[in-house]
What we know:
The chain is α+β, with helices and mostly antiparallel strands.
Amino acid sequence: MNKTREQQLETISEVKPLLMQWAIDQSIPLEHIEVVVPFVDDDFDLHAVMFMSTNADLEACRKDGMTTRIQEKYIASLKQHEYPDTWLEQVSFEFDSKENVDLNYEGSYFYRMR
C-alpha cells in the first residue's frame, strides 16, 4: 500500500472514534460508521455510511437536520486532521439504521456494505 493511501486510512481511523464520542456527547443515536475507499492509487474517494440505532431515529435525524450536522462535523474533523481539501471534495455520505441491518442483512454490516 502506498504512503498516501496509508495517510488517508490513518486519518479516517483517527476521526471515527472522535465522531462517535461527539455523537454520544450530543445525544445523537449514531450507532456505527462504515467507510469505503477505493483501492486505486490515484482515487481518494471516501464514502461514509452512518448508521443510526433505529429507523425511527434515522427519520427523526433527517427531519431535524441532524444528518447534515453529522456530515458537517465529520468533514470538519477530517479537515482538522489535515485531510487534504482535494480529498474532502470527494467525501460522500449515506445514512441507514442498525435496525435495517438487523432485519435485512442478518445483523451484518459486511453484508449491508456489499
